[in-house]
Amino acid sequence: MSNVTHQFAGYTAVEDVSLSVSQGRFVSVVGPSGCGKSTVLSIAAGLLAPTSGSVDVLGNRLEGINRRAAYMFQQDALLPWKTVLANITLGLEFRGMAVEAARGPALEWVRRAGLEGFENHYPHQLSGGMRKRVAMAQTWIVDPDIVLMDEPFGALDVHTRLRMESEILGLWSGSGKTVLFVTHDLEEAVALSDEVVVLSAGPASRVVGSYAVDLPRPRNLIDIRTDPEFNRIYTAIWRHLRTEVLKSYAS
Amino acid sequence: MRAKPSRAPMILWQGLLGAAFLLFWQAGASLGILDKFFFSRPGDIAARVWQLFAAGTVWSHLAVTLLEAALSFGIGVASGILAGFVLARNHFLAALFDPYIRVANALPRVVLAPIFLLWFGLGIWSKVALGVTVVFFIVFFNTFQGVREVDPVIVNNARMLGATERQLIRHVLIPSALTWIFSSLHISIGFAIIAVVVGEYLGASRGIGYLIAQAEGVFDTTGVFAGMAILAAVVLLVGWGVDRLERALLRWKPRAAASREVA
Ligand SMILES: Nc1ncnc2c1ncn2[C@@H]1O[C@H](COP(=O)(O)OP(=O)(O)OP(=O)(O)O)[C@@H](O)[C@H]1O
Ligand SMILES: [Mg+2]
Questions:
Q1: Nearest neighbour of A79 by CB, restricted to B159, B160, B172
Q2: CATH level 3 topology of B41-262
Q3: DSSP category for residue A147
Q4: Which ligand 1 atom is at minimum distance from the Cα of A36?
Q5: Is there an atom of ligand 1 within 6 Å of A12 CB?
Q6: Interchain CB contacts (distance < 8 Å): A and B
Q7: Considering the domain A1-68+146-154+178-226 in this protein, what is its CATH number?
Q8: Residue nearest atom 31 in ligand 1 by C-alpha distance
Q9: In chain A, what is the greatest distance between 2 CA atoms, to the nearest angstrom?
Q10: Which of A92, A165, B6, B68 could form a disulfide with A102 if both were Cys (CB 3.0 to 4.6 A apart)?
Q11: What distance lies between CA B13 and its chain's CA centroid?
């Protein structure tokens, strides 16, 4: 996306943001709370039309919904009136697949997400972590070229989080998919990504830094946090991010 | 935290309250504290209801009232849901019709009854028209609100998953609005019956409202109360049916939110 600016009724959330993600890369976006990370992601998804600037997806100018992308939302976005299985099937159903035909792949995703036995439960009957896993299956089942994830593990405990981070890496590696991952957790960003982008404090947030993370893959998410190279990169980005976070406190 | 009282005891308490009320009424009227002429007695009313059904005269009146109520309910609900959806999805139309809908809804329906009598005659259609004007607005406002209040995150999620406008309506908007629509159905069933009975009361040759008006004409309070008792039973029965339907269609809701505590 290039020179994207977005205003909400007079409030400039992001200004002149340019961000380019090459195919197959895992890129994280970090920044102080409320700086406009979700806004950037919604613009990339085509859910928000930027006030100015433009978005190009795989060589084409984006207009309307980004059909190549799947989006895992920050908030709970499952359909509360559909069972786990029906929620996971939804993307295939919308693409015109018969419900019976979609059942097979959906059950496969139920298994991958470790939700066996809960196929016929409704979202309100699941724990927060299970709901996130359903959401993950729901977004990945459509086999998108681009995956947008907005703080998918924000509210989870450390263990569940670690498990799901590994699952995401497993799904992504070798798939050739492009991932744009928003998080407020710098450790998570560095551990998962090829590149970490720092947004400045709002209003009128912009990209103020971009750091390559060239740690070898596959990565072991448990051990990587004690790796000296990991810590060097983490500290470098943190110095930068810290000033932005302090700015956001000040205002 | 204390557990919610379970279902059986509450029915018991509800029954006890009703029984106590009837007992005091009966005793008061028998002891002369309440004037029998104005208040009648539960025992006499029960006997009259029994008589009406035994003689079979009440059936045709009941059938007419139920038919009128069912027609106004059906027409009112269908048109209310349709209008609610169309206006909720189209901001231009919503803004265009807004003042007129407000004005139309503010009209007292009882005043409309004589006009409908003139327009549609003494038969069932003047009552149906009256019922529709009541049901339509209740269902319309609830549907409109329900569609407007749908969680935008869920709508966005469905759109990202590739939903077309039709799929969006079917998989997201209708289920989301159903909660609201159902709460309007509970109210509008009662109102449909009230409206058609008022219509019958003001001018008809058949129906429960007509029976009540007849009894009133000859100061037969027992007859008036008997008509009311029959109506009350019908409203309870139909309400129970809607409850069952709601529970089946809103299975996905957490239990506490789906069940209404007090009808
Ligand atoms: N629909 C909206 N209307 C008005 N202002 C909005 C709207 N959505 C977001 N904003 C504002 O835009 C700014 C950026 O919001 P955004 O949700 O993108 O932040 P974020 O970086 O994702 O925050 P967090 O880390 O807390 O999720 C915030 O100040 C917010 O108040
Ligand atoms: Mg956000």
A1: B172
A2: MetI-like fold (1.10.3720)
A3: E
A4: 18
A5: no
A6: 70
A7: 3.40.50.300
A8: A34
A9: 56
A10: A92
A11: 24
